[in-house]
Amino acid sequence: MKMKIFSRPTFLITLHLIYLITIPRVYSSLPLPLYAPELFLECLDTQPADPGSRNSRVAVIPTNPSFSTNLMRAVRNLRFASGSTRKPEAIVAAVTETHIRATISCCKQLNLELKVRSGGHDYEGFSYTSPVPFVILDMYNFHKVDINLKDETAWIQSGASLGELYYNIAKKSKVHAFPAGVCPKVGAGGHFSGGGFGNLLRKYGLSIDHIIDAQIMDADGKVYRDRRSMGEDVFWAIRGGGGGSYGVILAWKLKLVRVPENVTVFKLERTVEEGVIDLVHKWQQVAPVIDKDLFIRLEIKPVYRSTTSKYKTKTINVSFIGMFLGSPERLLNIMNKRFPELYLTEPDCMVKKWIDSVVFWAEYPENEPLENLLERTSVNESYWKRTSDFVQTPISKRGIAKIFQTMIYHSPLPRRVWMQWNPWGGRMAEIASDETPFTHRAGNVFMIEHFMNWYAPGDELEEAFLAISRSFKKAMTPFVSKNPREAFLNYRDVDIGITIPGYNATFEEAKVYGEKYFKGNYLRLFQVKAGFDPTNFFRSQQGIPVLE
């Protein structure tokens, strides 16, 4: 009998399938052979492909000269660009759904974790790092935006940026917008699946409150073209529950919102010496209950005090940054009645088209082409840590003073801890906490985003600044939500808890972060996950588990 000779791809894949013969039904992490990148490429070309094209043409592996460029294109946090950070076995820059399906299939066959990256803004790098062998599915080429003003909707693919969305809306209309973040380079896929909030929050709520349909591919490569086919439970889960725990989000259908042709923005700065403690205290009482058309963010930063002395001393500077859906005259009327202490005046008010207010909030140069909003890559320039908190009881003046003193103590200028305080109320207080997985609705006064930046590499330096960040957040414990200490999924934070590599966490083990992100909605997310992705193929260190 003639011996059958296997081709190299068939031989390698057969060999590895024998190697993985004892894999349990729920995925776990096993060591991979040293040739895993090549094996993955060869596997791609055994999968169904588009006519006249090989799947592997859209993939790069570490030996490819363009690998580093493809990896770093969306690495926003240089903490995850060090030599010690584990690199992917391959990066697939999918162009068609066929490429996504092939990537999923080969990751399943070779027991590789799949990381889906839309914009790369994941605060803990979950979309492009892992402690176990993994592949990045880069959605960069899935960035089509289709605006339909007839029914005031838009379809946006998950690799598109918010800037692309805003630009395309403005090209079609001067009186339409979408409630989402102020950073134009953020990818729609992750932003929307985590909730998505911005300066239209008090008027219109979150991004997910205006998502009316979606398309998703599951772990078997099946595409669900609308919410009816995927089921309302899955559609509920991916809007704020982290779409990456369920499948690959291909596109979202949005309901656009109306805005005036002209809006008003302002930015005022005050220091402790100018009475800012009293102003911040008053802001807590006013900002969450004032007219829904008005959003006033606080940026709180330690700075050096202006002085003629040769000795530098520190103080706190607070920026009051406002977005108002109306004229300066109506804004001033509201502020003079509700918040006269801020002394907002007509010269402080800047009238802009909505799209120009996007440029203002993004801190882009004014009077430059709006096409700047289409730029999706960033210059990687800093190392950082971000976290979140929710405040449910206004902080006393004494408490505010203590927070400011603690910030100064924790800020070795020019490096510093700083915060943004974002007022809740308005529409956010009107939507039930279980309407979507995003549970942080009524009962919250404002949300805090904590910042710590530094600009040089080194493990010791990183540990020092992470220690400062964690120490300051610990000092904030008396002032924020409790049991659980709530956190915002879009601002991922490994310090609130993770599952160990292998990711076959149980419901109870994942509670450590699940209840902080989702509170009572965590149970329903777990139940949806068990039905839609029962093998836990879409997994991460803060994913939704399937095991009881």
UniProtKB/TrEMBL annotation:
Domain FAD-binding PCMH-type: 84-259
GO molecular function: FAD binding; oxidoreductase activity
Predominant localisation class: secreted
Pfam name, any one: BBE
Gene3D superfamilies xref list: 3.30.465.10, 3.40.462.20, Uridine Diphospho-n-acetylenolpyruvylglucosamine Reductase, domain 2
Compartment(s): Secreted, Cell wall
Superkingdom, taxonomy of origin: Eukaryota
Cofactor(s) demanded: FAD
Family designation: Belongs to the oxygen-dependent FAD-linked oxidoreductase family.
Protein name as catalogued: FAD-binding PCMH-type domain-containing protein
